[in-house]
Amino acid sequence: MNRILIVMSAADTWERTDGTSYPTGYWAEELAAPHAKFVQAGFEVDFASPGGVLPPLDAHSADPAVAGADCGRHLEHAEKALREFGPLLDLSDVDLDDYAAVVLPGGHGPVVDLHQDADLGRLLTQADREGKLIGAVCHGPAALLSAVDSDGKWVFAGREMTAFTDEEEQLFGTADGAPWLLASRLRERGAQHSGGQAYQAHTVRDGNLFTGQNPTSSGPMAEAMIAALS
């Protein structure tokens, strides 16, 4: 099996507790770096989202002051990959039997929609049960929260993982007014969450589950998944 599924959020807005709306979308590096790594390793990559909706770019991910000097390269790759793929697949139509792995990039969108998406929850539950690889980076691990069994138990409770930390959310300026903070919510649900130095690459593997802390972790996470798939 030579295909990878990248699942994107369809959200473009994050509603805040103070009543304001924060524009969001996909984070260029978190989509581009894994996509480039997988393609270079010989994998075919498909994109999917709830309803097949293509979210906008998170403008912060194209700002060198925020996303680093390589952000232009990541944006160019992400836009080319999405343009060449065409319309995204609708999550509800995805057959997981077609894929060796599922990858969940961030941007703040996953804390808006993917964390409670029933179609994604079904796919992730199946993927974990069958031992397929699952990768999630930055805010992407919020999507793991969608996977609950018939008794309402979180499938990934007790697993070791990382995600965008509360400290990083504070440093980014989005902690105040956030309905909930990702790392704290993962721990509340039973994850064994660990964080590395803020904005430095940090990845965690627990069996078939691969997670990365922040955008810088996107490439290393994909490399770890490729090594496991090989």
UniProtKB/TrEMBL annotation:
<dbReference type="InterPro" id="IPR002818">
    <property type="entry name" value="DJ-1/PfpI"/>
</dbReference>
<keyword id="KW-0346">Stress response</keyword>
<keyword id="KW-0456">Lyase</keyword>
<keyword id="KW-0315">Glutamine amidotransferase</keyword>
<protein>
    <submittedName>
        <fullName>Type 1 glutamine amidotransferase domain-containing protein</fullName>
    </submittedName>
</protein>
<dbReference type="GO" id="GO:0016740">
    <property type="term" value="F:transferase activity"/>
</dbReference>
<feature type="domain" description="DJ-1/PfpI">
    <location>
        <begin position="29"/>
        <end position="226"/>
    </location>
</feature>
<dbReference type="Pfam" id="PF01965">
    <property type="entry name" value="DJ-1_PfpI"/>
</dbReference>
<keyword id="KW-0808">Transferase</keyword>
<comment type="similarity">
    <text>Belongs to the peptidase C56 family. HSP31-like subfamily.</text>
</comment>
<dbReference type="GO" id="GO:0019243">
    <property type="term" value="P:methylglyoxal catabolic process to D-lactate via S-lactoyl-glutathione"/>
</dbReference>
<dbReference type="InterPro" id="IPR050325">
    <property type="entry name" value="Prot/Nucl_acid_deglycase"/>
</dbReference>
<dbReference type="GO" id="GO:0005737">
    <property type="term" value="C:cytoplasm"/>
</dbReference>
<dbReference type="InterPro" id="IPR029062">
    <property type="entry name" value="Class_I_gatase-like"/>
</dbReference>
<dbReference type="GO" id="GO:0019172">
    <property type="term" value="F:glyoxalase III activity"/>
</dbReference>
